[in-house]
Amino acid sequence: MNIIELEDMEFFGYHGCYHEERVVGNRFMVYLRLETSSMKAAQTDRVDDALNYQQAYNLLKAEMAIQSSLLEHVASRILDAMFAEFTLLDKATVRVSKLNPPMGGKMDRVTVTHSRTR
């Protein structure tokens, strides 16, 4: 089993329950962990035999661009996209954080984490 981690990806998006959040937008940090067997890719040195993490980033970026009210919905869509695209994917975990959320006090971030196994 091999692990691919895409870390500290930052996006600007319009996710939130409040109307103002969907108009003004906010910064989000995303972490993605993909578990797969890459034995064939390790032997052949061919990207076609691997889980292409550039493609995973592009899928994640596209999902982050779709407005949602809940981070749970964003995280679930990201996992849906990963499992639909990558047959080599065995398990995935995504962590989506909203930076400086409007919670009525000083807070660095709020984070939702989802995991799924094929």
Task: State the end-to-end CA separation.
Answer: 14 Å
Strand line-up across the major sheet: 1-2-3-4
What spatial form do the alpha-carbon principal axes imply? elongated
Gross CATH architecture? 2-Layer Sandwich
> Element order, helices and strands?
EHEHHHEE
Average of the residue pLDDT scores: 94
Number of helices: 4
Residues in helix, %:
25-40%
Secondary-structure class: alpha+beta
Poorly predicted runs of 5 or more residues = none
Q: Quote the CATH topology.
A: GTP Cyclohydrolase I, domain 2
The biggest sheet, with number of strands, parallel, antiparallel or mixed sense and barrel status, is: 4 strands, antiparallel
Count of discrete structural domains: 1
Number of strands: 4
Which properties best describe this structure?
single chain; 118 residues; GTP Cyclohydrolase I, domain 2; 4-stranded antiparallel beta sheet; 4 helices; 36% strand; elongated
